[in-house]
């Protein structure tokens, strides 16, 4: 008892001293206990509470609208689920976007992208509204120029003064456009952008990229004219140069842990010594043009102008695209310009350590470029030697497709940015437009039963990765697609066998019966349309039309009339038991037979020239092999 009393006497003064010590430390700022971080502190800094709890509290504060969201705390917490209000974008209404009339930061470039061009794009797809009350998304456009960067405070005031900005810029998209002549850092550094999505070409630690929320754009071309003439042929596979790189390095004051420097490139050059056609230039002054573009610390400068770079690139099978170096280098227009120009010239990009690529939320870059971690740069010679000629051609074809789909013009770049925002809201793309040609002749068939194919049956299920990376592309939805077939016959057969094999001695009768039943249920009745292009060969056309009589699955015949003169009134059209429609296309062009005429009401289309004669049973047999 005496011993316990002694311990109690010692413990009470010790506890009092401990509490007093805590009070003193807190008053001196040595120890800080709080349930909420100061708004001036950076995200993820330790403030005496668990980082996971802090993250949950940040998201709660954003959702409740209680956080003042200063510029240095708006970036990491924002996700599309947290910072975008989907209640403004109901699926029962079309996707609608509003565009602010004035540029938030202008450019002296004569071909600069303007808000009116974006309005025209949205009107074409039926996604524009002039009434902000009906808008799902609000777009503001600014150009990344030196003059616009002189007054950050003024830019922030402009942004916060937008009519629909509100308190945090909810459902706003700020499109920061850059060219290969733009500064190497974002003009939005130090600007409070609240909950707005940032679409830009520059990523830096001062304004981090929020994956799944922000959109990374490619740099726009300085002169945004038609650049088809700048594209290089994709064949032959072999080229004069095996691999090429040109650039000059601006070293950082404090190199990062993994930095691709001139020493790394020289080391790579030595490893490639046994390979013919290695063209690596590490000083821009060696080039004939002598023109360089300054870069931020840790960045690789572009050498020459686009024309000179594409000339060298078009001679090479592979092009190096190295990552920047240093903890504050970020990624900028130089890296992405190299990448896009490689696609233009058909040289496979070898991307070393670049973490975020343009539109990589939807583009599968591994199909058009070799992506190599920085730590694997010394293995690049081994990797390149293993690439077959067939793979090289596949990379080139996919790269050319990506360039046409995503990077061929400033207009297309912004179209894709809008499409990405729309796809996040789960709104399907607008339907592709039918071609409405002048109808010259219509011959009905009253006794013929026409079956129209079901259209737009995959509005919310057809748009997978292939939708963004393959033909026909992400900008429009189409009535049907050959890539979304119904239940395949082999699967029906498996179903029949598993379900009925035990119901007969050998299972054959049950299998055949169930297969036929399911075939009729899962494959709807279909017909097809014949499209015939004709030009000044009336007798041949009439003979070809007469051959189409008696085809059971024929829906109608569409004759594309390429003659500048209308069909004569005394022309005798054959009675083939189905309607015949004669339409005029766009002038006298062989491509007119590929237009999506509104008269076509079936998924299946057979295209014939007017001098092609086929037996009806051959045509019917071919159709049934696909659809029945």
UniProtKB/TrEMBL annotation:
Name of a matching Pfam family: Glyco_transf_64
Query: Keywords on this record?
Result: Disulfide bond, Endoplasmic reticulum, Membrane, Transferase, Transmembrane, Transmembrane helix
> Which residue ranges have biased composition labelled Basic and acidic residues?
57-68
Chain ranges passing through the membrane = 7-25
The family database entries (Gene3D superfamilies) matched by this protein are listed as: Spore Coat Polysaccharide Biosynthesis Protein SpsA, Chain A
Q: Does the keyword Transmembrane apply?
A: yes
Q: Where in the cell is it found?
A: Endoplasmic reticulum membrane
What family is it from?
Belongs to the glycosyltransferase 47 family.
Instruction: Say if the entry is tagged with keyword Cell membrane.
Output: no
Renumbered to this chain, region (Disordered) spans 39-68
Q: Which residues does UniProt assign to the signal peptide?
A: none
What is the phylogenetic placement of the source species in the record? Eukaryota, Metazoa, Porifera, Demospongiae, Heteroscleromorpha
Name by which UniProt lists this protein: Exostosin-like 3
Indicate the segments forming the Exostosin GT47 domain, all copies: 94-387
Can you supply one Gene Ontology CC term for this chain's record? endoplasmic reticulum membrane
Q: Which InterPro entries match?
A: Exostosin, Exostosin_GT47, GT64_dom, Nucleotide-diphossugar_trans
Q: Where is the composition biased (Polar residues)?
A: 39-54
Q: Where is the Glycosyl transferase domain?
A: 528-624
Q: Which GO terms describe its biological process?
A: heparan sulfate proteoglycan biosynthetic process
GO MF terms here are:
glycosyltransferase activity
User: How does the record say this protein sits in the membrane?
Assistant: Single-pass type II membrane protein
Predominant place of localization: endoplasmic reticulum
